[in-house]
Write a structure and sequence with these properties.
Layout: E1 23-24, H1 43-53, H2 61-67, H3 77-87, E2 106-107, E3 134-141, E4 149-153, E5 167-168, E6 173-174, E7 180-187, E8 193-197, E9 207-208, E10 215-221, E11 227-232, E12 241-249, E13 253-261, E14 274-280, H4 299-308, E15 314-319, H5 325-331, H6 355-373, E16 376-385, H7 387-398, E17 405-409, H8 418-426, E18 436-442, H9 448-466, E19 474-479, H10 486-500
Parallel strand pairs: 3-10, 14-15, 14-16, 16-17, 17-18, 18-19
Antiparallel strand pairs: 1-2, 3-7, 4-5, 4-8, 6-7, 8-9, 10-11, 12-13, 13-15
């Protein structure tokens, strides 16, 4: 897996403390930033916050109060970043000041609580941890631009934080590759896009910013001479783990399934449950070696970034596609009726598609295996792109009771004309609790395939509304520079994850 990180010294620290009776000691004159309580603020305190947020260790309330250097009553990656900037001399004080305010000792009551009723309460639905609206983002200047600007704007309203070229980024730190890394905080309720540029003609494409975003770096030239960016979890050198299992597929061959477990996952800790995102084309999600385009989805980087921002970890399960193009076309095409004619294309491999077999394989084989062998909760998502996008949409529609959300990126809805879709959707009941759906498609003039997919991909939300699907459960995003490959899907994956999980 490709990682671009700022090196951070990781030191294991043994925490020890004594509890005297039921009294919690006063913490007068305690230092903000002194997470480990040794009366000094060091890189060890940063590491402890990062390990706590990743679920590797659990800090007590007193340590979390000391680590909350912005005094917003929540210790997050923003606090770790502020301590790093303090240690680097970029800032000379924390927003909260130097020392915590004096608190009176807290005496726990000795009276036993009222006995709970013998009848068990109704079990609540599993929920995700909400993430703060203001998150830090980081730009690695790996092309050695002489200046770096960040142009923030809202993709729906067009409102910009400031005029072009945006905010001049200053006070970079140098990573272990000798590259300068610039940082800034973004209110994602106000701005959801950023363009990094050098103040002149060199710039990136529009880059989504969400609660699952962290670091960006320049990858390659994209459409129109702009640069395509890659994403990474700033300040982390962990990758999680991948386990591969092979199943007998009903069509008579073996199919690999890749289970990615986030950093901090502990099979023995049954109290920590994880939501699961199931994805088509699993061979393209976590590494570049097996992809056709040379890019990957960077799903692991995005989940680690979400965790860094205070969100929950997510298990990502990728189901590999068929080993040939014809086999993939068959597997990932639901049989909804007559396949549309596409000029210049042989559509025979899409006719009478085996999408139901693939859907049943996911719900009847893969999901039971994952939920039997890993610590999971009831929150499930299904996502994919291109043929995988139409198949993920179909799986979600056929199993609305099983999935909390659906991601359909550059979906091949072109395979069926609107009357076929109307007939299919007309048979669905959308009156109950339905999944959240994220639609996305590019529209670059440099990519005929993405342009061909664009009309139906962007029309589906309207078709769904016409059949009674709740408008607040759907969103459609587009990108005029985006072509049909994993490089762009990786950029939109964090936004999909953040919106679908309603963070």
């Amino acid at each position: 897996m490709k990682k671009r990180i700022v090196s951070v010294l990781l030191i294991a620290v043994l925490l020890c403390g004594a509890v005297m009776g039921s009294m919690i000691s006063s913490h007068a004159a305690e230092l903000y930033g002194d997470v480990d309580g040794d009366d000094d603020v060091t890189i060890i305190d940063v590491t402890m916050i990062q390990r706590h947020l990743a679920g590797v260790i659990r800090l007590d309330d007193a340590a979390q109060r000391r680590g909350d250097v912005d005094a917003d009553e929540d210790m997050t990656v923003i606090d770790a970043t502020l301590i790093q900037r303090y240690l680097s001399g970029i800032i000379d004080k924390f927003p909260a000041g130097e020392t915590l305010p004096t608190q009176e000792p807290i005496i726990e009551p000795t009276q036993a609580p009222t006995e709970a009723p013998t009848q068990a309460p109704t079990e609540a639905d599993d929920e995700v941890t909400k993430v703060k609206n203001i998150i830090p983002i980081h730009f690695t200047n790996n092309k050695s631009w002489t200046a770096v600007y960040a142009y923030l704007f809202n993709s729906d309203t067009g409102a910009a934080k400031t005029v072009w070229p945006g905010t001049a980024m200053a006070n970079p730190v140098t990573n272990n590759l000798g590259e300068k890394v610039y940082s800034m905080n973004v209110d994602v309720t106000q701005y959801d896009r950023v363009i990094f540029n050098n103040g002149a003609k060199i710039q990136t494409t529009d880059l989504p910013v969400s609660k699952a975003s962290s670091g960006y770096f320049i990858q390659a030239k994209a459409a129109g001479g702009k640069y395509l960016a890659g994403v990474y979890p700033y300040g982390q050198d962990k990758e999680g783990t991948i386990k591969t299992v092979s199943f007998d597929y009903p069509d008579g061959y073996k199919k690999n399934v890749y289970v990615w477990l986030p950093e901090g996952y502990n099979a023995n800790d049954k109290s920590k449950k994880y939501s699961v995102l199931y994805m088509c084309d699993g061979q393209n999600l976590f590494g570049q070696a097996t992809t056709l385009s040379g890019y990957e989805w960077e799903c692991d980087e995005s989940v680690l970034s979400l965790m860094q921002n205070g969100g929950d970890g997510v298990i990502v399960v990728g189901i590999a596609c068929g080993s040939t193009e014809a086999r993939r076309n068959h597997e990932l095409t639901p049989n909804l009726g007559e396949v549309a004619t596409v000029a210049g294309e042989d559509m025979s491999t899409y006719q009478n598609g085996g999408g139901k077999v693939f859907s049943d394989f996911v719900t009847d084989t893969v999901i039971p295996y994952v939920e039997k062998n890993y610590n999971t909760n009831s929150i499930r998502g299904i996502a994919g792109s291109s043929s995988g996008g139409i198949e993920a949409f179909y799986i979600g529609m056929e199993n609305m009771d099983k999935f909390r959300y659906i991601g359909a990126l550059s979906p091949a809805f072109i395979l069926y004309n609107q009357p076929v879709w109307d007939n299919y959707l007309n048979g669905k009941d959308f009156s109950g609790d339905v999944p959240r759906i994220y639609f996305y498609c590019g529209n670059s003039t440099k990519d005929m395939l993405e342009q061909a997919l664009y009309p139906n991909a962007t029309a589906m939300e309207g078709w769904m509304k016409a059949h009674g699907y709740p408008a607040d459960k759907m969103i459609t995003k587009t990108d005029a520079d985006a072509v049909h490959n994993e490089g762009f899907w990786a950029l939109y994956f964090p936004e999909m994850l953040s919106w679908c999980m309603d963070l």
